[in-house]
Task: structure prediction
Amino acid sequence: MKRFGLALTVAAGLLAAPLAASDLTGLTDDERAAFRNEVRAYLLENPEVLMEAIEVLERRNAAEQVANDGALVAHNAEELFNDGFSHVTGNPDGDITMVEFVDYRCGYCRKAFPELKELIKTDGNIRVIYKEFPILGEESTLTSRFAISAQLLAGQEAYGQIHDAMMVMRGNATPETLVTLAGSLGLDGAAILDGMSNPRVDEIIGQNHLLAQRMQISGTPTFVMEDQLLRGYVPLDGMQQIVAELRAAKDG
Result:
């Protein structure tokens, strides 16, 4: 369906371009219609021309998107990579930094979770930063606030434990289930639940949402890998390939 829309756009452009590119205002309506019919007939007889034009347009659009994303990352780099709060895991001195905008109730975030853990483990030189970005309803907000409260009360290690546990948690997230989950990790779940009312929790979530808005991020997971913005799930082999390309670019 996307390519069909592109085909219509390209075809319309091809039909209109010759008229726009030359001063043909002196043509009569009949002459203009005849000219367009000739262009249309040519495209029907040579559809490969249209497909070639679509491919060129797609490459151009992709290049423009990459350039735009790179500018967004550069403009927001300090908040992305050094906000002073967001949880950092992996190798804090790693040569590749990766940011994930995450929602605990997001199915693709959950799918990416074990693969990201595997990347951290097997590579050993990647710094990962989590940005709490609840966008999928009340349970998303509840779990995000619980994780942030855990960090405020008990530190980064507690956040890491809560984060990992909620990523694989089965069933609905409720205040009761989260308190029980925290208790199973040796944490004071009731205190964490009470800490969710801390205004700092609202501030952190609000800052992340504003950052996402500036970055034109509207879904999860979204990854920032150095200067690249990746919207959506990326499998392990894809992440490994991107890491290798980023390192090669640095070495080059």
Residues 2-75 form one domain.
